[in-house]
Write a structure and sequence with these properties.
Elements: H1 27-36, E1 40-42, E2 54-56, H2 58-77, E3 93-95, H3 105-110, H4 112-115, E4 120-122, E5 129-131, E6 135-140, E7 150-154, H5 158-171, E8 174-178, E9 189-190, E10 211-213, E11 223-225, H6 231-244, E12 251-260, E13 275-285, H7 287-307, E14 315-319, E15 331-337, E16 347-354, H8 358-367, E17 373-375, E18 390-392, E19 395-402, H9 403-414, E20 415-417, E21 425-427, E22 436-442, H10 449-464, E23 469-472, H11 478-488, E24 492-496, H12 498-503, E25 505-510, E26 516-520, H13 524-532
Parallel strand pairs: 3-12, 7-9, 22-23, 22-24
Antiparallel strand pairs: 1-2, 4-5, 6-7, 6-8, 10-11, 12-13, 13-19, 14-15, 15-16, 16-19, 17-18, 20-21, 24-25, 25-26
The structure holds glycyl-adenosine-5'-phosphate.
Glycyl-adenosine-5'-phosphate binds next to strand 13, strand 16, strand 19 and helix 9.
């Protein structure tokens, strides 16, 4: 990002009065339900919390596991749902599990040691630090402030409303411009949390990797980093994988795991966290097939997210313009979701990038270990009929997804408010991901109903508890128990009542419609098998 000091007359873009999403789906109500029902808690809450870190409660931990398992099942166990790949063969994927701390040279080779920076501006007065590209400034709507100060802010933070109020008092009608469009030094800019102008520094680089030390001596020689992505562990082991297993290019290596980034402005709930989990695939192929594999992965990853209920206009696939691409990339697309805090815009869930053979070449350069693959299905046929393999550094397609962001999108999509229902907040989580798969309730805790319900619960749990929780509860009114399951996202409740005793039927209540139908008790397991497996 460059700053042009000659650009002293920025073109202001008026800020729309309100870009807020429907009040029925506000982040506040989603976050409050997440806390109340045990999906997500603030980390270290008893100590006042720690910015950028989140813990998952009982329902959230199961939901997160279900999303991770769905990815693992569809990527590693039965890649791409068993569809054939670009070469007409089944897609081959193998898993790895690499360490969070890698040799520090890994991050020199990957470019993270040098390039993993967001330019920041600091406030000399308040000591606040802001991502340069996030800072906006309220200026008069005609763009000419004269000698008056202008008001910087970061959107979606307290500074936005506070600075806008001050700017409107000073200028009347205001517009918003990027800080980068104003000439430096910013002597008339009042920082987002400051009271007087001229306290913002010029933008400076700031590395996002957390570091620590190995061994007893805490010096530069023993400095190591917490990985900012799981991908580099895969690249560093790629040669071992193709040397020690029977995989053949084209094939992919998949991994899930924690990554860490010292985000300067963690915000929007779990969307931008400092500790988060990724689900990454590095798919290795011959250069001649790479663009076709890129299109294949891009389209299938979009379909995958749709299959989990993130369909409709809230989900888009955005192809990057050529000027957005890294120098080694011939194509990158993002699967983006319209979160309540990005609406009407979208936020990235997963990036699918054609990375050339940049990463393996870099690791070859910095480690001195050859990363060439000997492709015995290609290359020259010798006079004796045998084939001399073609040696090359494979090209890579990288579908890289965020697990926590996926969970957040699922929660946002699921949250539904229906004032016509006695329990208006409903989490319409896709049955495959729902943390509670079914609830079995006796209508009242007497007349033999609990015994029948317990027996049904045992049968259902024996079959489906490996997929998620099967709830049993005999306390509270049935309405309250249904309401709790609606908020937990449990798709199906079965109730044993007086009629069960006479005709062996139970009530099946559907979470999404609230409708109830009767079903023979012997059909419950078969019904759930059809819905959950
Ligand atoms: N290996 C490529 C890579 O890491 P990325 O776009 O930086 O690419 C991939 O990250 C995905 O990881 C993103 O699409 C997002 O879902 C998730 N992610 C990245 N930074 C995150 C953060 N600070 N908090 C939560 N998720 C994050």
């Amino acid at each position: 990002m460059s700053i042009d000091p000659s650009n002293s007359t920025p073109t202001p873009t008026p800020t729309p009065a309100s870009q807020a999403p429907s009040p029925l789906k506000s982040m506040d109500s989603i976050m409050s339900l997440c806390k109340r029902r045990g999906f997500i808690y603030q980390a270290s809450e008893i100590y006042g919390g720690i910015n950028g870190f989140w813990d998952y409660g009982p329902l959230g931990a199961q939901l997160k596991k279900n999303l991770r398992d769905a990815w693992w099942q569809d990527v590693v166990m039965l890649p791409c749902w068993g569809r054939k790949g670009v070469n007409g063969r089944p897609v081959g994927i193998v898993p790895v599990d690499t360490t969070i701390i890698q040799h520090p040279k890994t991050w020199v080779a990957s470019g993270h040691a040098e390039g993993f920076n967001d330019p920041m501006v600091d406030c000399r007065d308040t000591k606040g630090r802001y991502r340069y590209d996030h800072v906006q400034v309220y200026v008069p709507s005609d763009g000419h402030a004269g000698e008056k100060p202008v008001f910087a802010y970061v959107s979606d933070t307290a500074s936005e409303a506070k600075q806008r109020k001050k700017a409107e008092k000073t200028f009347g009608e205001v517009a918003s411009v990027a800080l980068s469009s104003l000439p430096q030094p910013w002597t008339r800019v009042i920082g987002p949390d400051a009271d007087k102008p001229g306290t913002l520094t010029e933008p400076r680089q700031f590395n996002l990797m957390f570091h620590t030390y190995t061994g007893a001596v805490f010096d530069e020689d023993n400095k190591v980093y917490l990985r900012p992505e799981t991908a580099q562990g895969i690249f560093a082991q790629a040669k071992n994988v193709w040397d020690t297993t029977r995989v053949k290019v084209p094939f992919g290596i998949a991994q899930t795991g924690k990554s860490f980034r010292n985000e300067v402005t963690p915000r929007n709930f779990t969307f931008r966290s400092r500790e988060f989990e990724q689900m990454e695939i590095e798919f290795f192929c011959h250069e001649s097939e790479a663009l076709a594999w890129y299109a294949y992965w891009r389209d299938w990853r979009m379909e995958w997210w749709k299959s989990l209920g993130l369909a409709g206009e809230n989900l888009i696939l955005r192809e990057h313009d050529t000027d957005e691409l890294a120098h080694y990339s011939k194509g990158t697309s993002d699967v983006e979701y319209r979160f309540p805090f990005t609406a009407p815009g979208y936020g990235e869930l997963e990036g699918i990038a054609y990375r050339g053979n940049f990463d393996l070449s870099q690791h070859q350069k910095f480690s001195g270990v050859k990363m060439e693959y000997n492709d015995t299905e290609r290359g020259e046929v010798l006079p004796n009929g045998s084939r001399r393999g073609e040696r090359y550094i494979p090209h890579v397609i990288e579908p890289s997804a965020g697990l926590d962001r996926g969970v957040l999108a699922v929660l946002c999509e699921a949250y539904t408010k229906d004032e016509s229902r006695p329990s208006p907040e409903i989490m319409k989580i896709h049955p495959r991901l729902a943390p509670v798969k079914a609830a079995i309730y006796p209508l009242v805790a007497k007349d033999g109903m609990p015994e029948i319900a317990e027996k049904l619960h045992t049968d259902v749990a024996a079959r489906f508890a490996k997929l998620g929780q099967i709830e049993f509860d005999e306390k509270q009114s049935i309405g309250k128990r249904y309401a709790r399951m609606d908020e937990a996202g449990c798709p199906y409740c079965f109730t044993i009542d007086g009629e069960t005793m006479s005709n062996q039927t139970v009530t099946l209540r559907d979470r999404d419609t609230g409708q109830q139908v009767r079903m023979n008790i012997n059909e419950v397991v078969g019904f759930l098998a059809g819905k959950l497996t």
